[in-house]
């Protein structure tokens, strides 16, 4: 499964523990594969969908993936990603990064996160026996810090923005040569999140959903889910990918703003304080790729307000589903689109994720 990293400048690199961007400064991507369908493996985890040949994933796995798909009214299906081992969908990407780090002989990991990715990397690093240091912005929920420390990782709190936190992590990577377990920079994270798509396709009995409604901050789920369906399309299993409705908070919506005026790169914004802290990314590094994925899918962007997030959170709780506030944004968007009679929520199954557990952070 270990493929070369590629940069848009034309350079490519065999992955090494210290490589996290191109010498030109560009982001690294992976070549698109073709999905093997139906999957041959009977493993009951996301690894059933990955060609994991050269990754020591069995030493690291906690059984991630294989999350429930719960049918609601009117063709809506909710994918219960908070039923993941550390309580969020980030486990799908984190386990791949940590297995890759082991395969490449890394001796330590560094990551930066506003919460869920950091807790996931800390858990899988513990599992792999690798020391980890997680950089978090000041104000990160105590429950998440407690979880990261509980797994034995070091926590470095950075006064400043989410971007300042990433800069501090990168400085540590450069000074120590640690493996940068970044859900933004390392494209192997999307190899994990693409299994979200493959599971849905299988759980729906081989039906392509009409629409995937997905939260968008750094875009790890948008890019992964789109990649999963692209690889099914590349294999000739399906002839169209689902429309992607990407959801941002009204108080931090650089991608939606770019989409609205037809730009293919976002401009950084000054974020407000939103309940959806997990997607409050002012300057998403993979912004152009996220916009391109949504465009390729014939999708769109939606922004939701604080009241809508709180109402969606309460409505989910009233249905037995307990998510962290960020985990309610996709459902908030579905409710809005339905109220507007939007064509984006008609024409077949609509699938939205419940990304993080309500036990991690509350309203
Ligand atoms: Zn380059």
What does this structure look like?
There is one protein chain. This protein has 363 residues and is α/β, with parallel strands linked by helices. It contains ten helices and twelve strands. The strands form three sheets. It has a six-stranded mixed beta sheet, sandwiched between helices. Helix 3 links the parallel strand 6 and strand 7. Helix 1 runs parallel beside helix 2 (116-128), helix 1 (90-103) packs across helix 5 and helix 5 packs across helix 6 (220-234). It binds zinc ion (ZN). Residues 7, 9, 11, 22, 24, 26 line the site of zinc ion.
Secondary structure elements and their pairing?
Layout: E1 5-6, E2 12-13, E3 69-71, E4 76-79, H1 90-103, E5 109-112, H2 116-128, E6 132-137, H3 142-150, E7 154-158, H4 162-176, E8 179-180, H5 188-203, E9 211-215, H6 220-234, E10 243-249, H7 254-260, H8 287-296, E11 300-304, H9 306-317, H10 329-339, E12 350-353
Parallel strand pairs: 4-12, 5-6, 5-8, 6-7, 9-10, 9-12, 10-11
Antiparallel strand pairs: 1-2, 3-4
Helix pairs in contact: 1-2, 1-5, 2-3, 5-6, 9-10
Zinc ion is lined by residues 7, 9, 11, 22, 24, 26.
Key features?
single chain; 363 residues; alpha/beta; 6-stranded mixed β-sheet; 4-stranded parallel β-sheet; globular; binds zinc ion
How far apart are the termini? 40 Å
Instruction: Specify the overall morphology.
Output: globular
Bound molecules: zinc ion
Beta percentage is 5-15%
Can you summarize this structure?
The chain has 363 residues and is of the alpha/beta class.
